[in-house]
Design brief:
This protein is α/β, with parallel strands linked by helices and 347 residues long. Helices cover 36% and strands 10% of the residues.
C-alpha cells in the first residue's frame, strides 16, 4: 500500500508502515546481515564531528523526493528552549561543525539567533538551503546575514537545466534558484579566494543511483558558468532514500522492488565503513536524538539504554554507541556511497 494512502491516519501509523515496508523488501538481504558479512558488526560510532540540528519541517517548497515530507503546512518547529538545550549539549563536545537543516531551516523564527549563538561558540555553521527561500518575502536579507557570519551554504539544485529541476521541486523553482545563486555570488559565495563556501546538491529525479560525482560536478560548473555566470565550490551527489515521498513514488510507480534490489546489488563495503552516522549526532525538532536524519524521519531512535532526548545528552556514551540500521541504509552504502557531503568511496 502506498504510504500516501495512510497519511489520513495517525503519523506514527504511517512511520510504522514505512518501517514494515522496508523490512519486507522482497529479495533483498537484511542490511544487518550484509554488514555482519562485511565485518562491520557491531556497527559503532567513531565520535562526534558533526552536530546536525533539524529545526523544523516547515518549507516553502513541496519536493517530490523529500524524505522529510516537508512543506508549507507542516507545523513542527524547534523552540528557543530546545535550541538552548542543543547549545548546552554542543558545548560538551568538540564537534567543529553544526549542520542546520529542515524543512527550510531559515523559516524557523529563531534561525538567525541560533546561527549567532553557534558562531559565538566558535563552531562552523552549515545552512542546508533550498535557495528559493532567499527570494521569499521576509527573507531577502538572508544572503547578507549568512555572508556576514561566513555560514557555509549547501544548496539543492537537482540539475543545471530547468525542466529536470522543476519536475522534482516545482514550477519556476529553477529560475528562482538561479537568481538566488547569482545573488550569493555577488556576496562572494563560490569564490575560491573569498572563502565563502557554496556547495550544491544533486539528487536523481528517478529510481536510479547518481552518476560519478566528479564527472557531474564538472558538467554543473561548465554549464552554470556558461549559461548564467554562476560559480560554486563543490557538487555533492546524494542518493534518494526510500522514505516518505520518495517511497510513495517508488510504490506508486512500481519501482520499489527493483530500486531496493539495485541498492542491495551495489552495496559497497568501503562506503559502508565511512557513512556519516558514525561521526554525527542528529537532533530532531522536538529535541529527540537519532543516529542520522534518515532514522529521524522513520522514528528509529538510539540503541536501548541511551538517553533519547537532548536534555539528557551524554557525549561519551553517544560517541561510542551502536548505530541502529535498517534496509533504508542501503541508500547510503550503494555504489560510491551517499552522505550529506556527497559520495564516500569509489564504486
Amino acid at each position: 500500500m502506498p504510504t500516501s494512502l495512510l497519511k489520513q491516519s495517525h503519523p506514527l501509523s504511517v512511520l510504522g508502515r514505512q518501517r514494515e515496508i522496508l523490512r519486507e523488501a522482497a529479495g533483498v538481504p537484511a542490511f544487518a546481515d550484509r554488514m555482519a558479512a562485511a565485518g562491520l558488526s557491531p556497527f559503532r560510532a567513531t565520535g562526534i564531528e558533526v552536530f546536525q540540528i533539524n529545526v523544523g519541517r516547515m518549507c516553502n517548497q513541496v519536493c517530490k523526493h523529500c524524505h522529510v515530507d516537508a512543506g508549507p503546512d507542516r507545523t513542527e518547529i524547534m523552540t528557543r528552549q530546545t535550541m538552548d538545550l542543543c547549545l548546552a549539549a554542543l558545548e560538551k563536545t568538540g564537534a567543529p561543525i553544526v549542520d542546520i537543516t529542515g524543512g527550510a531551516p531559515e523559516m524557523n523564527p529563531h534561525f538567525r539567533w541560533l546561527v549567532d549563538r553557534v558562531k559565538d561558540l566558535g563552531r562552523h555553521v552549515i545552512d542546508r538551503c533550498n535557495l528559493t527561500i532567499l527570494l521569499a518575502e521576509g527573507y531577502r536579507d538572508l544572503p547578507k546575514f549568512l555572508a556576514g557570519r561566513r555560514v557555509e551554504i549547501v544548496a539543492s539544485l537537482p540539475y543545471y537545466l530547468g525542466r529536470q529541476t522543476d519536475a522534482q521541486r516545482g514550477d519556476q523553482v529553477f529560475e528562482r534558484s538561479i537568481r538566488a545563486l547569482q545573488r550569493l555570488n555577488e556576496l562572494g559565495y563560490g569564490d575560491p579566494v573569498g572563502g565563502l563556501a557554496l556547495n550544491l546538491v544533486y539528487n536523481p529525479v528517478g529510481a536510479y543511483l547518481p552518476p560519478k560525482q566528479e564527472a557531474i560536478e564538472a558538467d554543473y560548473k561548465r554549464e552554470l558558468a556558461r549559461r548564467y555566470g554562476i560559480r560554486f565550490n563543490r557538487l555533492y551527489t546524494v542518493t534518494n532514500l526510500p522514505i516518505n515521498r520518495f517511497l510513495d513514488y517508488l510504490l506508486e510507480s512500481g519501482n520499489y522492488a527493483s530500486y531496493m534490489a539495485k541498492l542491495s546489488d551495489r552495496f559497497n563495503e568501503t562506503a559502508a565503513a565511512a557513512v556519516m552516522c558514525r561521526h554525527t549526532i542528529s537532533v530532531g525538532w522536538d529535541g529527540r536524538l537519532y543516529d542520522c536524519d534518515f532514522n529521524q524521519m522513520l522514528d528509529v531512535g538510539l540503541e536501548d539504554g541511551l538517553p533519547g532526548h537532548i536534555r539528557d545528552f551524554d557525549p561519551q556514551r553517544f560517541a561510542r554507541r551502536t548505530i541502529q540500521t535498517g534496509n533504508h541504509c542501503y541508500g547510503c552504502t550503494a555504489g560510491s556511497g551517499s552522505s550529506c557531503t556527497g559520495s564516500l568511496a569509489r564504486p
